Amino acid sequence: MSEFIKELYYIVAIENIPSVLRHGILSYDMAMRLRHVSVANREVQGRRANKKVPNGLSLHSYVNLYLNARNPMLYTLMCNGSDDICILKLENRLIEFPGVVITDGNAASDWVSFYSLSEAMDKLDLDMIYARYWTHEDPHEQRRHKSIMCAEVLVPNIVAAVHINGAYVSCSTSKKCLSEVGFDREIIIDGDMFFNRQVRGRS
């Protein structure tokens, strides 16, 4: 599957980057022990809090990485004017780590399925996951596609910072902010990934 999945993604507030570089990317439960800025939707997190991965941990005990970062969650963040966010790009070999679970949609969804790597190879709809748009005339199909585009790779507890290869930002202002907080890896400006909506930036 690694030949189709070139990298994995984590959406994060730039303010959290010093902590990420020091402690790694933490699961929701572990991150709650540290001061941090959350970009998560509270309603969605409420659903995730009560969900357990079959034969695995509670959903909040995993780091949730995306297969496609240009997804409905990011679009909502950008439409709401979220400031100072970036997308960390991570090694695709994380999908092979022990205990990793792959979903075929948003893990909080009622109709999502959870797979091991070997199971996921024949189950993921990569064309829909990596589609450019999720809009449909049929509202049900649109909801389904939005969920599929948020397919996740769930890593137990923590992803060490060594697995972070770089980051994407929407504009030069965000690139400057990311550099100023000590991010020492490749920073790529990609407005299209952020739906060509620039973040507000720091005041």
TrEMBL record:
The lineage of its organism: Archaea, Methanobacteriati, Methanobacteriota, Stenosarchaea group, Methanomicrobia. Pfam families: DarT. InterPro entries: DarT. Keywords: DNA-binding, Glycosyltransferase, Nucleotidyltransferase, Toxin-antitoxin system, Transferase. It comes from the Archaea. One of its GO terms (molecular function) is nucleotidyltransferase activity. The keyword Electron transport does not apply. Residues 6-203 form the DarT domain. It comes from Methanoculleus palmolei. This is DUF4433 domain-containing protein.
